[in-house]
Amino acid sequence: MKTVITYGTFDLFHIGHVRLLHRLRSLGDRLVVGCSTDDFNEAKGKKSVMPFEHRAEILGACRHVDKVFPEASWDQKVEDIRRERADIFAMGDDWAGRFDDLSAHCEVVYVPRTKDVSSTEIRQLVHALHQERTRELRQSVQHVLDLVERL
Ligand code: CTP
């Protein structure tokens, strides 16, 4: 039984997340995922749209994931690796080199990231769409006000 362990925020669950989890699960027989808590995200300067409970529940509903646990700090990884008896620690290659120290405890692997999609980009896109819609609504209201004024 080979266990793979990974970590992340997994906000606005997207195709990059699905492909990563599929790939990581295929490296072993069991995939366990540390999902960053809201407080830990705040400490990292990140603000997710979805609360921890939702992100963790969505992760747990993914068929590639066998177990989800909270990631509440940077320094819990060695303890998690031991508790879960993880053979492989794996992350997307945007983290390449950052966790090489863990190779004293298990194999460390970085896998290619899916191009052109990220939670940050989705958040920015939704924000831009919201701003555009607000601008359109303001213009419509101004148009009606102009018409009323002319009456
Ligand atoms: N990931 C990936 N391909 C993507 C986006 C993320 O393989 N296109 C991987 C990351 O490398 C990481 C895991 O998914 O191992 C969780 O990353 P997370 O930071 O939650 O996803 P992002 O979409 O990168 O979120 P953000 O933009 O907020 O950093």
Can you tell me about this structure?
Helix content is 44%, strand content 19%. It has 151 residues and is of the alpha/beta class. It folds into two domains: 3-114, Rossmann fold (3-Layer(aba) Sandwich); 118-151. The protein has a five-stranded parallel sheet. The structure holds cytidine-5'-triphosphate. Cytidine-5'-triphosphate (CTP) is lined by residues 8-11, 16-17, 20, 91-92, 94, 113-114, 117-120.
CATH class annotation of the largest domain: Alpha Beta
Ligand inventory reads: cytidine-5'-triphosphate
CATH superfamily grouping of the largest domain: HUPs
Order of helices and strands: EHEHHEHEEH
List the domain count as a whole number: 2
Keywords:
5 strands, alpha/beta, Rossmann fold, single chain, 151 residues, binds cytidine-5'-triphosphate, 5 helices
